[in-house]
Amino acid sequence: MAALGFRLLFLLSAVGSAAAASGCSSMAFSSNRVYATCVDLPRLSSSLHWSYDNASATLSLAFVAPPAGPEGWVSWAINPSGGGMVGCQSLIAFRQPNGVMGLKTYNITRYGPVAEGPIEFETSGMAAEQSGGVMRLFAKMKLPAGMTEVKQVWQVGSAVATGVPQKHDFKPENLQSLGQLDLIMGSISVSGGGAAPRNKYVHGILNAVSWGILLPIGQLFARYLKTFRSADPAWFYLHVSCQIIGYAVGVGGWATGLILGSRSKGIQYSTHRNIGIALFTLCTIQVSALLLRPNKDHKYRLYWNIYHHSVGYTVIVLGIVNVFKGLQILNVDHKWTVYFIISICTLGGIALFLEIVTWIIVIKRRSDDSKKAYDGSTSGGVQRSISL
């Protein structure tokens, strides 16, 4: 029994030693590159190796990870403006069109196709290599004095097209590959839930539901239900309720947009932002004007109606346009854009059908009213007007 216990203990020790040896500390790099510190990153089977010279504020690093596909890419970045992809000062390694591994810099300013360009930090000694199913990138970065803690983001992708890295997967391990790195202490803290991506999707969902669905439905109530006399005043309360709910949801989406903007210094989507400001302003005026609505027989009611209809249709058109702008910025899977298009086309089809029905009813009603203007024909066949 003692011998068996000794053998088990020896086996467990050997397994533990092998596991330890397989970590980042066992890696060796070409060109005699040696680093003072390394950590096995918790996601994407990757590791980071670095030495930091406090006197010159220079970071020498190596990042190791398997790409998501044979022709894929790997990336490591510092995001000085916050967490997430936008704002990343990125190093991306991939096989160049000539077949040679290369490393390039990218300043990520939006969700969408990336473009090579200079980053905020001076870089040197850039190189990349691939062997054994993993890619390794090497670089030196000159950081601002005193920046000993950085927000790191690492990522892998499966494809490169015409020299441009394509978008990565949106699995949890991809979205959560970010966190804080202490260059002096050699410690990392990893973001657990990806708050920034969540806020972006919350922002998108709230605005798509508000400007893209609820407000157009409220307009349908006002435009078509009031044609039916039996629906008066129900159509008015349905219209007001739908618009107020849509406005409240839109305010929530607008507020999350302000939060995202404040956390993304230097990152601007001018057209999307300006349309959003215009929408919030117009819709606020529209809701407030409800309190100033004149009576039906008031001399200014006609002008109020013209204003109300004009602003209402403008808000709906701008809202739908801005939702498409937002989907483009988020760079979501194409199916979500298709779903939104289907929703808008469905509402448009309903509106077209109701428009036809409305005109049929209006024409028939006018015909009936014109007949009621006469009490029939005299014996001579001449119609005479009814006394009103």
Note the main attributes of this structure.
alpha+beta; five-stranded antiparallel sheet; 7 helices; disordered C terminus
Describe the structure.
The chain is an alpha+beta fold and 388 residues long. It has seven helices and 15 strands. The chain has helices at 2-21, 172-175, 195-224, 234-262, 270-289, 301-330, 334-372, and strands at residues 37-40, 47-53, 58-65, 73-78, 89-95, 101-107, 122-131, 134-142, 149-157, 160-161, 164-165, 178-182, 187-190, 374-377, 383-385. The strands form four sheets. A six-stranded antiparallel β-sheet has the order 6-5-4-9-12-13, with no helix packed on it. A five-stranded antiparallel β-sheet has the order 1-2-3-8-7, with no helix packed on it. A two-stranded antiparallel sheet has the order 10-11. Helix 3 (195-224) packs antiparallel against helix 4 (234-262) and helix 5 (270-289) packs antiparallel against helix 6 (301-330). The longest helix is centred in the last third of the chain and has 39 residues, at 334-372. It is elongated, with a radius of gyration of 32 Å. The chain starts with a helix and ends with a strand. Residues 1-21 and 377-388 have low confidence and may be disordered.
Topology:
Blueprint: H1 2-21, E1 37-40, E2 47-53, E3 58-65, E4 73-78, E5 89-95, E6 101-107, E7 122-131, E8 134-142, E9 149-157, E10 160-161, E11 164-165, H2 172-175, E12 178-182, E13 187-190, H3 195-224, H4 234-262, H5 270-289, H6 301-330, H7 334-372, E14 374-377, E15 383-385
Helix pairs in contact: 3-4, 3-6, 3-7, 4-5, 5-6
